Amino acid sequence: MRLKDELPVDHPLNRVYRFGAGICGLLLLVFGCLGFAGSLSAFSTDGQRIAGLSTNGLLSTVSVVFGLLLIVAAVIGGNLASTVNIVVGVLFVASGFVHLFLIGRRGNVLDFGMSNVIFSFLMGLLVMTFGMYGRVSGGLPHDNPYWRRRHPERAGREAAVVRAGIGAAAREPARAVER
């Protein structure tokens, strides 16, 4: 499979994206599986707790789906893992805001409590941080592929200067080292 990435497959940032997606996905998968092990009903809102968070069968399903999505992104790696981390992180933060207003109301079908809202915010920020690492910054170095993609004209000029410097060095005769 060939990805349309500007990062090479073995780029060091790939490990950050994969690690972040894998760890966060595993946490969500374990939480969802614990919910299934507790034989929770799908739309129960009676406040059953697992790992300090209120849950029901629907929230367990959502957790397993997003956990598997993050794990698959970790396996694939590259910019896909980064992008999935960013999107899932934004969804978690948005879910935290939505459920903050739904606590105690009939629309709270995922049985969110305040601990779930805080978890959603923290997990979203963590996953987004893993995804944005090296991609979103005000001071990226000029050899960063994201900087080069955002500034193609300047990157082209800098690459031409480097190539000219390498070409000039190759044309110089080798000098004997004096001892």
Automatic annotation (TrEMBL):
The chain crosses the membrane at residues 20-43, 55-77, 83-104, 116-136. Keywords: Membrane, Transmembrane, Transmembrane helix. This is DUF4383 domain-containing protein. It comes from Streptomyces racemochromogenes.
